[in-house]
# Entry
Amino acid sequence: MFKILKQVSDYAQESFLAAKYIGQGLSVTFDHMRRRPVTVQYPYEKLIPTERFRGRIHFEFDKCISCEVCVRVCPINLPVVDWEFNKEAKKKELKHYSIDFGVCIFCGNCVEYCPTNCLSMTEEYELASYDRHELNYDNVALGRLPYKVTDDPMVKPLREFGYLPKGVLEPHDLAAGSKRAGKRPEEIIKAEENQKA
Ligand code: SF4
Ligand code: SF4
# Structure
């Protein structure tokens, strides 16, 4: 008799705990149901990188003087500057230039110290590849014009902080009914023009 009572008591206790844990889980779900979604639907939507974003490096071959300052200031001596001395012109002649983005830490030192400004950091961040050797960009790949989120007609560019109301830094704090995060650049320009008018 005593054994049956204990079994019933254990069963009731476990049932109570199970109900408590389900309740706790559902409370998190219900809490999120009241919030506005902030997920960016990548790759159909993309956030516009900030102005000083440090993405893929762009290189202008004709401006490079093969001084190798970029190599010396790089924490891992990464840029490969392949040059030959032209005896007639009495100056260095650049043959080949490359940076391996599989190793680069995007610190921006090379861009900062290049005396001819032939290096610049772009807003391009989509560098994923199946083969890491493909990340070693030569001067042709480095010279390619940067990809812009706003130039891609297949993508909805979003500027999250451009949309959030004044004083709001946490999108989760907004009510579920408030407008979806992000605004098209033309919408931002139009709103600014309306404000000025
Ligand atoms: S960004 Fe930094 S790590 Fe990358 S090549 Fe330039 S100096 Fe080197
Ligand atoms: S610092 Fe600039 S100019 Fe000098 S080798 Fe590097 S990229 Fe060329």
